[in-house]
C-alpha cells in the first residue's frame, strides 16, 4: 500500500472506538473531505478525490455525500489491511501476552536457500532480530505465519514459545535491539506539543495557520513512529501514553 493511502486510512482509523471494542461499523465516525484535505496537504483536491475513489474501489473506505459535503470512513477491511501493513496498530489495541515466539533458523530449505523470503517477511511483521538466525516475535504467531512456516519451512525452522528469561533482562535486551528508549523520548516530545495545542485550541476555539502546520507535522512524526514501532511500548511501559493515545488526542483537537 502506498504512503498516502496508509496516511489517509490511519487518520480514519477509529482509535477510540477500537479501544472500546465497538464492532458495529455504523458507529465508526465519518470524516469530512475538508479534514482529509487539511491532514494531507501534499495532495491536490483532485489527487485526494482520486485517492478516495481508489480506496473505495478496493472497499477500504466508504464515502457518502451529505448535501454538498463529501464524508468518508474506513471499512473493516480497510482496518484489517492497515493493521497488516502496520503491525503495531494491532498490537497496541490488544494485550500482548507475556509470551514470546522464538524462531530459530536451522537449515536452508530448497525453496528459499538463503531464508531471504522468510527473513523479509518476519522483519516486515516487526519480528526482532536477537542474533544471526534467531528472531523474537511478541505473542503467539498468527495463523498466516504458522501456515507459511508449515508450508515452506517445515523442519527448517524451530519455533518455541517462552515467557521465562532465566538470565539477562528481557526489557533491556529487547528494548536495546529495537531502540525503544529513542521511541519513548520522541513520544514524550510529541506529548508536550499535543498538550500545548490542546490548551491553545481550548482558549481560541479555532486553529491558527501555525497550529495547523504543527498538527500535520505531529501527524507525520506519529505515522513514522508507528510504521517502525514493534508495539512493545505498552508492554514494557504500560504507565505512559502510547502512539495510539496521541493519535486519538490529535483527532479530537482537529474535531473540537
Helical segment count: 13
Series of secondary-structure elements, N-terminal to C-terminal: HHEHHEEHHEHEEHEHHHHH
Low-confidence stretches: 19-27
Q: Please estimate the helix content.
A: 55-70%
Explain the overall architecture.
The two termini are 30 Å apart. This protein is α+β, with helices and mostly antiparallel strands. It has three domains: 3-85, Arc Repressor Mutant, subunit A; 100-162, Alpha-Beta Plaits (2-Layer Sandwich), CATH 3.30.70; 176-255, no CATH class. Helix content is 55%, strand content 14%. The relative contact order is 0.13. A hairpin with a 2-residue loop joins β5 (128-131) and β6 (134-138). The protein has a four-stranded antiparallel β-sheet. It is built from 13 helices and seven strands. Mean pLDDT is 85; it is low at 19-27.
